[in-house]
């Protein structure tokens, strides 16, 4: 379920910290990680989201030994599938290459979902997941909806949802 295994980091006594990131302080680092991981072969503009500095946008980061290694952004945005429910879109989730496949992203997504649920009246968190990473979202309780679609210059995606109403019933 939503319980990342961090025993490797605990055994090695590696300090992991997750926090909400103030974009005034961290926006350059956030965009640099996005650019290097998600948009490496695309123009720099792809890593800049128009909502980055909106007051309703949340940025989250995971630090390993004080190094920012993983980021994600939550943007207040309705879903085409749940038009009548408050929603946030998860965008720009990226983890530096040498920190991938260590369950750090799972820890970051759990923290960000719980924070959004506690601080907003959100019912649905959704994302446009790249096909090659959609299993990550499935493992973190997101469900696919609709058909696959192509985003120009990036590739095949599917729309995926985390329905907090179901999560709140389980807890």
Write up what this structure looks like:
By secondary structure, the chain is α+β, with helices and mostly antiparallel strands. Helices cover 29% and strands 33% of the residues. The chain has a seven-stranded mixed β-sheet with strand order 1-2-3-4-5-7-6, sandwiched between helices. Helix 3 links the parallel strand 4 and strand 5. It is globular. The chain starts with 6 loop residues before the first helix and ends with a helix. The N terminus is likely disordered.
Topology:
Layout: H1 7-11, E1 16-20, H2 23-37, E2 58-64, E3 67-76, E4 87-95, H3 104-119, E5 124-130, H4 134-139, E6 143-151, E7 155-163, H5 164-170
Parallel strand pairs: 4-5
Antiparallel strand pairs: 1-2, 2-3, 3-4, 5-7, 6-7
Helix content bin: 25-40%
Q: Profile the largest sheet.
A: 7 strands, mixed
Unreliable runs, pLDDT <50, ≥5 residues?
Answer: 1-5
Number of strands: 7
Q: In what range is the share of β-strand residues?
A: 25-35%
Helix-strand string: HEHEEEHEHEEH
Give me the Rg, rounded. 15 Å
Structural class comes to: alpha+beta
Shape, per Cα inertia axes: globular
Query: CA-to-CA gap between the ends?
Result: 12 Å
What oligomeric state is this? single chain
Question: Order of strands in the sheet with the most strands?
Answer: 1-2-3-4-5-7-6
Tally of contiguous helical segments: 5
